[in-house]
C-alpha cells in the first residue's frame, strides 16, 4: 500500500469509527421506551427497588402484589390490563420472562402471544424484581441444570417424545395452531430448564415428577448439541428437512444443468 | 512372441492409418473435412489431465481416511470434479474438434399401403373360421378365466375381503394404561398443564390403535357428550394418539398459561395441523380432519392406576368407507 | 495387419448383418437446440440413480426387526431402532463413500424429477405433444407419475422419523380412496399401519426392481417412439420445415455432446452429494407410530400434495353411516389424478378446441399459441401455489406471516391468480406476436425498397 493509500484508508476508517460511535451514543441517550423507574435507584439489587419497579411496570396487568387481573380493566396510562397472577411463579418465572425479553410486553395487545424484545431492565433491576416476585408466594427458585451430567441419546429420545412435535426434532422451531414455536438455538441452559418447568404461553409445563432433573439435563445437553449437529454430509442447509433440499434442487442443480445444456446446445437463431 | 507382434502392430497403427489415408481421400467423403484445431486439442488434453488429477485425488482420499473421519465434501469434489473435467473434454471435442454437420432428411410419415396390407392379412387369415363370434367370445372368456386364476394369489397379500383388522383395538375394559417403559400410569401422577403417552399393558406399542395421548383438565370445564360423562375421572382424558385425518401422531398439546387472553387447550397434529378440542371429546376445531379424535373411557383401579373402562368411542386412525359405522372392536 | 476400426466392424457385420442398422443409427439426426437436451438430463439422472442405487442395495437391510444401535453417532447410542434404519445410518457413518453414494442417490432423485418437470414444460409450451407424438407425451406423463411413487418409496424405506410420518400419511391417503380404499390399503400393508414385516420386503422389491424396471421399459418406449417420428424443431431457417428434419448426426457430432452432458449431470449430482447434506436420517432419529416432529415434509416433488392436504377444509362426505370420501382423498388422490388427467387429455382437448388435426413437426414458439401458453401458465401456477402452501408453516417460522393469514390468502389465491395469469399471459403473447409480425412486415418492406432501389440503380 502506498503512503497516500494508507492515509486515505486511515481517514476512512476513522470516519467510520466516529459515525459508529456517534450512532451508539445517540441510541444510548434515548430513554428506554416505556420503563418507569424510581428517581433514586440503590446501587445494589433490593426488594424495595423490585417493589417499586413492579408497581411502575407490571401491576397494570399482574395486579397489586401479583394478584393477577383476570378481567381486563383500565390501569395506568389507560392501558387495558389483563394478566395472570404471579403469587406462586417464584424467582424462576420472573427471571425467565424478564431475561428472555418477554416482559414487559412490547405490544400489550400483541397476537399471537408474547414476543421477545431486547431486555429493557438492567441486571440489578431484574434481580430486584425477581427478589420481589419470589417474596409474593412459595414459587420455585431459579433452576441450576448441569447438562454435562446428561446423556445425549436419552436427550434425543426425551426430546422426541415431549418436544419435537412442536419444536421440530432438531429444535428449529415450528408452528402449532395459534402460535409460532420458537427455535431453541440461542437459549442458555438455564432458560431451557425454566421453559420446560414453566411452559410459557401455549407450551405445556413439565414438572420434575414427569421429567426429572437428571432427564432435564439430558434434554438440555441435546438441545445445546443441536446448535452444532453432526452435518457430516456437507452444508446442513438449516437442518429442517426437504424444503431447503427442494430449493437446492431447483435453484442450484437446475440452473447448473441448464447452463450445461446451453453450453452443449445451441441458442435460438432467427433466420 | 505373439504378444510382441500385437504390440508392434498397435505401435505402428498410427503410421499405417496415415499411409492408408492417401488412397482413401480419393473416395467421396461422407463426413466433410474440417480444419485442424490444435488449440482445441490442447484444451482437451488439459481437461484429460485435470480429470486424472481429480480421479487420483478421489482414490487418495478414499484410501487415506477411515470411514468415520471420511471428508464427504472432499470425496464429492474429487469425483464431481473428475466428471466435470471429462465432461469439459467431451464438450470441446463435440463443439470444436469433431466435424459438426447440420444435415436434413425427410420426417418419417404414415404408410397407408402397409396399413391396408396389415388389415388385409388379418381379415384373410380367418377365412376358415365359420362361428367367429362364438369363438371370440369363448376365447375371451377362457383368457379371462386364466387371468383371474393367475391373479388370484395376489389376494394373499393381505386381508382383502376382511377389513376386520381395521376395527381391531388392543383396548378393552380393565386393561391397564402403561407408559413407554411398561410402568403403569398412576392417576395421581397425571398432572394438569402437560401430556402423557400411554399404551395398553402387554400389547404391541406400534399398533395403530395402541397409543394414547393423556391429559388432565379442570373437570368443571368439561363439555363431554352425556354418555361420556364418566369417561374422564378427575378430569383425566385419554384420546387415540393417531390423527383421524392421515394417521400421524398427535404430538402437540397446546396449553394456555393464562386462559383469558390465550387460545384454548387443543391437541394438534403436526402433519396438516388438524386441531382437536379435548373438552368436547376430541371434536375438530381447525385443520382438515373430518372426524373427532376417538376417546378412550378411563377408570381408576383400587391401586390408583389408570385402566380402560371400555373401548374407543370410534374407530382409530384415518377415515375409510366403514370408519363411521358402529365399531365392533375385535380384540386380538 | 490389424485395423482397429475396420476389423471389429467387419466382425460384427459378418455375424449380425447389422452394418446398415449401425450406419443408420450413426446418421440419425439429433436436435441441436439447448431446450431439447432437458430430456437427456432426465435420462442421465436415471443412470446415476441406477448406479448409486445398486451400490446402496449392497449395504441396506430391508427389515423392521428391532435392534439396538451402537455406533459412532452418539445421540442414537443405545436406542432401539429398526434394522433398516440402522443399516442406513451405518451406510452413512461406517461405510467409506457410503454417505456420498446415499446423498448422490437422493439428489439424483430430486433432480431427476425436477428435470422431468422442466422437460414437460418445454414439450407443453412448444406444442411438441401434438400429432404424431401423443403417445410419447402419454408415456412421459406415466414416467413422471411413476417416478413420484418411486421416490416416495425410496425415502420411506429408511424408517427414520420423517419417512415414518410420510408412510403414515400414505396409509391415510390410501385408506381414503372411496369404497375400495380400506381393503386395498390393507392388502398392500398386510395389516393396519405400520403393517406386517412383509410390507418392508414389498416396498423394497418395488423400489429396487419393479418400478425401476417399469421406468426403464417406459424410457425405452419413450425414446423408441421419439426415434420413430423424430424430434420436433423450431422454424429457425428455411431448411426447417414440416417435412424435413434438420439436426446433427449421432456420430460424430452428437456422441461427444451427449457424453459431455452425461458427465456434467453426474458431476452436478456428485458435487451436491458431496457438498450439500440431504436427508440426514441420523438427525431425525428412528420412527414409532406415536412419535412426530413439527415441520415434517415430503421431498419437493410431493410438496404439492401436502399443500393440497393442508388447504382442504375439514369435511368428510358421508352417506348414511358410510364414509364415501374421507378428507385426504381430495388432496392426496383426486388432486394429482386430476392434474394427470388434464395433462393426458390436453392433446385431444386442444385438437377439439382448435380443430387442428394435422401432423405437426414444427414446434410453436410459446407466443405463437397464446391460448395454450396462457392455459399452461395458469394451470402451472395453480399447482405451484398449492405446492407453496405446503411450506406455509416454515414460511411462518421464517418470515412471521401467520399460518391463518396464509391459509386465507392461498384459499383465494389459488383460484384468482391462475385466472388473472391466464388473461395477462394471453395478452402478452398476442402483443409479442403482433410485434413480431410488425417487424417481419417492416423487414419485408425494407427488402422490397432495397430491391427496387437496386433495380432503379441498375436501370440508370
* Biggest interface, chains and residue tallies: B-C, 98 and 110 residues
Q: Tell me, rounded to a whole number, the average pLDDT of chain B.
A: 90
Query: Strand tally of chain B, please?
Result: 12
Helix percent of chain B reads 25-40%
> In which order are the strands of the major sheet of chain C placed?
1-4
CATH topology of the domain at 177-308 in chain B: Rieske Iron-sulfur Protein
Distance between the termini of chain C: 71 Å
How would you spell out the order of helices and strands of chain C? Answer: HHEHEEHHHHHHEHHHEEHHHH
The helix count of chain B comes to 5
Description:
The complex is a heterotrimer of chains A (271), B (332) and C (460). By secondary structure, chain A is mainly alpha-helical. Chain A is 47% helix and 6% strand. Among the domains of chain A are: 47-135, Cytochrome Bc1 Complex, Chain D, domain 2; 147-225, Orthogonal Bundle (Cytochrome Bc1 Complex, Chain D, domain 2), CATH 1.10.760.10. Chain A has helices at 3-29, 47-57, 59-62, 90-100, 123-135, 152-162, 164-167, 189-198, 213-225, 242-264; strands spanning 69-74, 80-83, 174-176, 179-181. In chain A, helix 4 runs antiparallel to helix 5, helix 6 packs across helix 9 and helix 8 (189-198) crosses helix 9. The radius of gyration of chain A is 26 Å and the shape is elongated. The model of chain A is unreliable at 25-32 (pLDDT under 50). Chain B contains five helices and twelve strands. Chain B has helices spanning 2-24, 38-64, 72-97, 112-125, 132-151; strands at 103-106, 177-178, 195-200, 212-216, 236-240, 252-254, 266-268, 275-277, 283-286, 295-296, 298-300, 306-308. The longest helix of chain B is centred in the first third of the chain and has 27 residues, at 38-64. The mean pLDDT of chain B is 90. With 460 residues, chain C is mainly alpha-helical. Chain C folds into two domains: 28-353, Cytochrome Bc1 Complex, Chain C; 365-460. Chain C is built from 16 helices and six strands. In chain C, strand 5 (317-319) and strand 6 form a beta hairpin. In chain C, helix 3 packs across helix 10 (250-275). The longest helix of chain C has 57 residues, at 403-459. Classes of the chains: A mainly alpha (271), B alpha+beta (332), C mainly alpha (460).
Amino acid at each position: 500500500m502506498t503512503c497516500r493509500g494508507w492515509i486515505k484508508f486511515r481517514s476512512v476508517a476513522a470516519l467510520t469509527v466516529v459515525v459508529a460511535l456517534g450512532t451508539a451514543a445517540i441510541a444510548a441517550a434515548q430513554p428506554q421506551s416505556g420503563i418507569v423507574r424510581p428517581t433514586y435507584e440503590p446501587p445494589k439489587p433490593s426488594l424495595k427497588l423490585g417493589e417499586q419497579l413492579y408497581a411502575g411496570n407490571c401491576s397494570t396487568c399482574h395486579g397489586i402484589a401479583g394478584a393477577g387481573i383476570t378481567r381486563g380493566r383500565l390501569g395506568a396510562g389507560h392501558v387495558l390490563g389483563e394478566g395472570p397472577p404471579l403469587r406462586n411463579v417464584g424467582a424462576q418465572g420472573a427471571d425467565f420472562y424478564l431475561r428472555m425479553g418477554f416482559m414487559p410486553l412490547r405490544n400489550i395487545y400483541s397476537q399471537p402471544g408474547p414476543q421477545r424484545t431486547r431486555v429493557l431492565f438492567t441486571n440489578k433491576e431484574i434481580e430486584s424484581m425477581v427478589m420481589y416476585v419470589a417474596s409474593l408466594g412459595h414459587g420455585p427458585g431459579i433452576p441450576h441444570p448441569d447438562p454435562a451430567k446428561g446423556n445425549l441419546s436419552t436427550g434425543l429420545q426425551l426430546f422426541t417424545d415431549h418436544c419435537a412435535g412442536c419444536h421440530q426434532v432438531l429444535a428449529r422451531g415450528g408452528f402449532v395452531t395459534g402460535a409460532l414455536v420458537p427455535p431453541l438455538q440461542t437459549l442458555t441452559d438455564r432458560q431451557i430448564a425454566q421453559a420446560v418447568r414453566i411452559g410459557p404461553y401455549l407450551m405445556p409445563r413439565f414438572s420434575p415428577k414427569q421429567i426429572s432433573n437428571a432427564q432435564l439435563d439430558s434434554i438440555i445437553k441435546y438441545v445445546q448439541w443441536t446448535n452444532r449437529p453432526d452435518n457430516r454430509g456437507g452444508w446442513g442447509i438449516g437442518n429442517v428437512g426437504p424444503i431447503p433440499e427442494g430449493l437446492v434442487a431447483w435453484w442450484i442443480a437446475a440452473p447448473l444443468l441448464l447452463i450445461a445444456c446451453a453450453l452443449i446446445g445451441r441458442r435460438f437463431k432467427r433466420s | 512372441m505373439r504378444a510382441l507382434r500385437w504390440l508392434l502392430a498397435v505401435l505402428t497403427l498410427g503410421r499405417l492409418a496415415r499411409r492408408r489415408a492417401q488412397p482413401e481421400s480419393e473416395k467421396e467423403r461422407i463426413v466433410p473435412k474440417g480444419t485442424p484445431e490444435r488449440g482445441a486439442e490442447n484444451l482437451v488434453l488439459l481437461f484429460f489431465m485435470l480429470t486424472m488429477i481429480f480421479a487420483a485425488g478421489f482414490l487418495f482420499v478414499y484410501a487415506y481416511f477411515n470411514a468415520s473421519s471420511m471428508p464427504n465434501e472432499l470425496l464429492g469434489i474429487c469425483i464431481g470434479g473428475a466428471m466435470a473435467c471429462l465432461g469439459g473434454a467431451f464438450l470441446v471435442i463435440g463443439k470444436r474438434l469433431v466435424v459438426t454437420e447440420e444435415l436434413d432428411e425427410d420426417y418419417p410419415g404414415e404408410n397407408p399401403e402397409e396399413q391396408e396390407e396389415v388389415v388385409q392379412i388379418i381379415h384373410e387369415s380367418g377365412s376358415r373360421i365359420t362361428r367367429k363370434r362364438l369363438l371370440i367370445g369363448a376365447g375371451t372368456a377362457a383368457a379371462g378365466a386364466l387371468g383371474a386364476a393367475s391373479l388370484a394369489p395376489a389376494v394373499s397379500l393381505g386381508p382383502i375381503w376382511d377389513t376386520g383388522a381395521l376395527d381391531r383395538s388392543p383396548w378393552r375394559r380393565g386393561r391397564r394404561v402403561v407408559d413407554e417403559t411398561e410402568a403403569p400410569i398412576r392417576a395421581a401422577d397425571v398432572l394438569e398443564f402437560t401430556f402423557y403417552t400411554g399404551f395398553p399393558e402387554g400389547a404391541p406399542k406400534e399398533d395403530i390403535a395402541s397409543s394414547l395421548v393423556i391429559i388432565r383438565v379442570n373437570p368443571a370445564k368439561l363439555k363431554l357428550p352425556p354418555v361420556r360423562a364418566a369417561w374422564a375421572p378427575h378430569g383425566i382424558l385419554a384420546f387415540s394418539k393417531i390423527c383421524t385425518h392421515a394417521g400421524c401422531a398427535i404430538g402437540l398439546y397446546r396449553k394456555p398459561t393464562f386462559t383469558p387472553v390465550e387460545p384454548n387447550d387443543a391437541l394438534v397434529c403436526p402433519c396438516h395441523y388438524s386441531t382437536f378440542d379435548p373438552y368436547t371429546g376430541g371434536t375438530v376445531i381447525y385443520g382438515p380432519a373430518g372426524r373427532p379424535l376417538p376417546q378412550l373411557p378411563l377408570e381408576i383401579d383400587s391401586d390408583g392406576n389408570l385402566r380402560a373402562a371400555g373401548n374407543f368411542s370410534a374407530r382409530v386412525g384415518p377415515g375409510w368407507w366403514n370408519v363411521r359405522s358402529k365399531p365392533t372392536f375385535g380384540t386380538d | 495387419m490389424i485395423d482397429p476400426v475396420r476389423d471389429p466392424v467387419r466382425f460384427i457385420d459378418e455375424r449380425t448383418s447389422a452394418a446398415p442398422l449401425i450406419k443408420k443409427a450413426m446418421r440419425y439426426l439429433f436436435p441441436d437446440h439447448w431446450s431439447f437436451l432437458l430430456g437427456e438430463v432426465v435420462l442421465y439422472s436415471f443412470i446415476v440413480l441406477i448406479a448409486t442405487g445398486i451400490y446402496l442395495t449392497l449395504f441396506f437391510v430391508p427389515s423392521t426387526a428391532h435392534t439396538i444401535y451402537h455406533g459412532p453417532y452418539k445421540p442414537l447410542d443405545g436406542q432401539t431402532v429398526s434394522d433398516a434404519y440402522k443399516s442406513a445410518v451405518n451406510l452413512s457413518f461406517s461405510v467409506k463413500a457410503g454417505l456420498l453414494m446415499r446423498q448422490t442417490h437422493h439428489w439424483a432423485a430430486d433432480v431427476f424429477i425436477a428435470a422431468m418437470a422442466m422437460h414437460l414444460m418445454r414439450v407443453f409450451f412448444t406444442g411438441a405433444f401434438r400429432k404424431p407424438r401423443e403417445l410419447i407425451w402419454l408415456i412421459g406423463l406415466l414416467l413422471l407419475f411413476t417416478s413420484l411413487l418411486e421416490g416416495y418409496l425410496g425415502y420411506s424405506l429408511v424408517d427414520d422419523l420423517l419417512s415414518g410420518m410420510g408412510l403414515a400419511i400414505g396409509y391415510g391417503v390410501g385408506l381414503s380412496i372411496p369404497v375400495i380404499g380400506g381393503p386395498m390399503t390393507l392388502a398392500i400393508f398386510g395389516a393396519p399401519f405400520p403393517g406386517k414385516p412383509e410390507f418392508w420386503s414389498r416396498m423394497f422389491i418395488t423400489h429396487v426392481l419393479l418400478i425401476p424396471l417399469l421406468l426403464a421399459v417406459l424410457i425405452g418406449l419413450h425414446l423408441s417412439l421419439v426415434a420413430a417420428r423424430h424430434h420436433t424443431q423450431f422454424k429457425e431457417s428455411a431448411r426447417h420445415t414440416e417435412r424435413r428434419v434438420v439436426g446433427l448426426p449421432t456420430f460424430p457430432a452428437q456422441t461427444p455432446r451427449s457424453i459431455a452432458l452425461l458427465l456434467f449431470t453426474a458431476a452436478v449430482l456428485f458435487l451436491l452429494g458431496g457438498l450439500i447434506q440431504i436427508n440426514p436420517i441420523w438427525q431425525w432419529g428412528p420412527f414409532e407410530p406415536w412419535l412426530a416432529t413439527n415441520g415434517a415434509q415430503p421431498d419437493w416433488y410431493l410438496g404439492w400434495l401436502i399443500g393440497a392436504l393442508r388447504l382442504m377444509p375439514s369435511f368428510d362426505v358421508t352417506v348414511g353411516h358410510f364414509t364415501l370420501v374421507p378428507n385426504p382423498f381430495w388432496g392426496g388422490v383426486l388432486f394429482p389424478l386430476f392434474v394427470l388427467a388434464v395433462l393426458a387429455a390436453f392433446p385431444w382437448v386442444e385438437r377439439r378446441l382448435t380443430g387442428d388435426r394435422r401432423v405437426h413437426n414444427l414446434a410453436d414458439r410459446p407466443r405463437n399459441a397464446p391460448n395454450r401458453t396462457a392455459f399452461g401458465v395458469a394451470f402451472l401456477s395453480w399447482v405451484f401455489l398449492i405446492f407453496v402452501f405446503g411450506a406455509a408453516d416454515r414460511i411462518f417460522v421464517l418470515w412471521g406471516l401467520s399460518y391463518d393469514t396464509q391459509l386465507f390468502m392461498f384459499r383465494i389465491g389459488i383460484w384468482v391468480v391462475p385466472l388473472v395469469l391466464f388473461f395477462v399471459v394471453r395478452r402478452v403473447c398476442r402483443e409479442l406476436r403482433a410485434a413480431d409480425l410488425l417487424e417481419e412486415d417492416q423487414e419485408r418492406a425494407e427488402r422490397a425498397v432495397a430491391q427496387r432501389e437496386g433495380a432503379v440503380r441498375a436501370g440508370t
